[in-house]
Structures are given as C-alpha cells and as structure tokens.
Amino acid sequence: MTTSPHLNHRRGTDRRRITAACALLALGLAGSAMANTWPEKPVTLVVPYSAGGPTDVVARLLAVPMGQYLGQTVLVENTVGAGGTLAPARIVRSRPDGYTILIHHMGMATAPSLYKKLPYDPLKDFEYIGQVLDVPMTLLSRKDFPANTFPELLDYVKKHQDTVSLANAGVGAVSQLCGMLFMHQAGVKLTVVPYKGAGPAMNDLMGGQVDLLCDQTTQTVPVIQDGKRAKVFGVTTPQRLSSLPNIPTLDEQGLKGFDVKVWHGMYAPKGTPGEVIDRLNKALNVAIKDENVKKRIAELSSDLVTPDKATPEGLRKHLEAEVARWRTVIKAAGVSAE
Asked: What is the residue range of the signal peptide feature (predicted)?
C-alpha cells in the first residue's frame, strides 16, 4: 500500500510538534526542579570595594537574610581594584549558575564613560536581579581644617588649592566622581589622593593625613554624629536628610544643581537561568523587608528601594537611564579615569 506524500508530510509535522512539545515540557520540568533545589551550596556575593567601605556594609547587611531565605550561606567577597571594574569583569567570566553574583553601586553606570577600554558592557553582559537602595553623600574635612562653614571652605580652597588634598576611594569610585564634580563647580583644582577603598580614605581623613573627602552616608553618618573626628560641610542631595536635618545641602549653599545620590543593584552573569534569577530576586526582596536591615539602613541615612524597583526590569531601566545621564555629566565635568 502506497502512502501519499501529503500524509507523510503531515506525520512528519506531527512528529516535530510532539518533539518540540516534549522538549518544552522537559525544560519546564528542569526549570521547576532547579527552582526547587537551587541553591545546593553557598552563594558568593562579590563586592568591588574594600571591606568596611559603604558597599561592603550594605552587602553584609543583606547577606544574612538572603542566606536565610535561600537556605545557604551568602558569602561576601571583596574583589578590589581598577576603580571597581575588576569585580564586574570577574562576574562576566563566572559560570552563569547563580552561585557568583555582584552588588555594585552607580559605578556600573559611570564606568562606560570613565574608561576607554572596559572589559564588559553593563547593558549587555549581565542578568539583573534588582535595585537595592539609594545612598546620599556628604562632604567632610579633617577635624582641624581651618574652615568651619561652607563659605569659609570655598574661600579657603580657592586661596590654597595648591596645598589642599582631596581623598577618594580610588579611581572610578563614586567618591572620586563626587570630588571631581565639587572641584568643577567650585572652580578649583586640588591635590587628589586616591585610596584602595573608602575605609582607608576615611581613616586617613580622621587621622589628619588628608583634608577633604566626599563619601556615602553609610560610612560618614556615624562620624558626623560623633562630632569629634571630622567636620561636615554639606550633603550632596537636593533635599536635607531627616537624620541630619541641621546639615545644609551643597545646592542651597551655592553649588546649584549639585546632586549625587548613590544607588546600588545586584547582578548575575549573562545566561543565568530565569528560575535562579527569580530565586535571587525573592531573596533580595526578603532582605530589604527585614526589620534589622531596615533599621540599620535608616540609621545610615539611606533609603531601601520600593518593591517596583527591586526587580530585574526595575534595575535594567534605571541602569539604562543612569548610563545616559552620567555620560553627559562626566563629559561636562571633564572627569576621566584614564
């Protein structure tokens, strides 16, 4: 009996449809199984900056409740160097299985404009887990600095700019960008002293080895509230901070439009399965709702993001907007890491 070509074609099409359906079912079952069993070992949360610095403080706060949700320890690892670009470069090279992830601040958005040769593309080489929090910054000086008010500070640095030192957490760090913007708007060129992290820079400021530092409130608020180890001249956001209501903004003191607020996000290597990203996102959301985390972040004058921002899509959109924003700002300020 001869089978018609039309019947053979239909049978072939049916077999392909059945095969495709089986493949999709297998993928669905595999994804479901992965979602139920992952993680099966500790997760490493990579921080681009030194231990004790602002981003490190945030990472260690989040690691505990995230680990409790995941049922595995979340280990914080500091991969320091190259202005915070070594850590993202490591993530890009890591296996996309969710066991090595990154927390990074706005440096993910500024690096493309600061570096001519960047070993990764923030908009193409990562999976997004979600935004974490926003952190204002403050401008500080050593305790025995001659100026006591911001007008006095501006007057002093203009007259003694050849001898005034400005510390930062390293090339490409947010404190470098904030400091450069301050010099640009104040019309001065100070002696810039880069450190390997915000912690060492703050230690030398309090020790009197450097004159000025612009840094995140996660590190500066305890020093400001102590009142014995440094002077504060202003906050970098357009509005005053509820935790430091008596500290005026740089904007209201004459540096019009000065606005630097540090946001943080979590990332995974490109190709990390969606089920794993979903688990990590849920762990992140559990962490930012944790009462101890909320209390500590509030004490550091920072703001945890709203649930709509703590999503992969929320982080992606924000990163895209920030890359465009800082490209314009950095070009206007003449800031470069190379």
From this structure: 1-35
The residues near 189 (Cβ < 8 Å, ≥ 6 apart) are 161, 183
CATH class of 41-135+262-333: alpha beta
What integer pLDDT is reported at residue 30 of this predicted model? Answer: 46
Query: Residue 42 half-sphere exposure, CB side, CA atoms within 13 Å?
Result: 10
What residue spans define the domains of the chain? 41-135+262-333, 136-235
The CATH homologous superfamily for domain 136-235 is: Periplasmic binding protein-like II (3.40.190.10)
* Distance (Å, whole) CA 299 – CA 281: 24
Query: Does 136-235 match 41-135+262-333 at the fold level?
Result: yes
pLDDT digits (tens, 9 = 90+) for 111-132: 999 888 899 999 999 999 999 9
Per residue, the 3-state secondary structure of the chain, as one string, reads: CCCCHHHHHHHHHHHHHHHHHHHHHHHHHHHHHHHHHCCCCCEEEEECCCCCCHHHHHHHHHHHHHHHHHCCCEEEEECCCHHHCHHHHHHHHCCCCCCEEEEECCHHHHHHHHCCCCCCCCCCCEEEEEEEEEEEEEEEEECCCCCCCHHHHHHHHHHCCCCCEEEECCCCCHHHHHHHHHHHHHCCCCEEEECCCHHHHHHHHHCCCCCEEEEEHHHHHHHHHHCCCEEEEEECCCCCECCECCCCECCCCCCCCCCCEEEEEEEEECCCCHHHHHHHHHHHHHHHCCHHHHHHHHHCCCEECCCCCCCHHHHHHHHHHHHHHHHHHHHHHCCCCC
Residues shown for the chain: 338
Residues 127 and 98: beta-carbon distance below 8 Å? no
DSSP β-ladder status, 165-168 and 100-104: unpaired
Return d(Cα 285, Cα 288) in angstroms, integer.
5
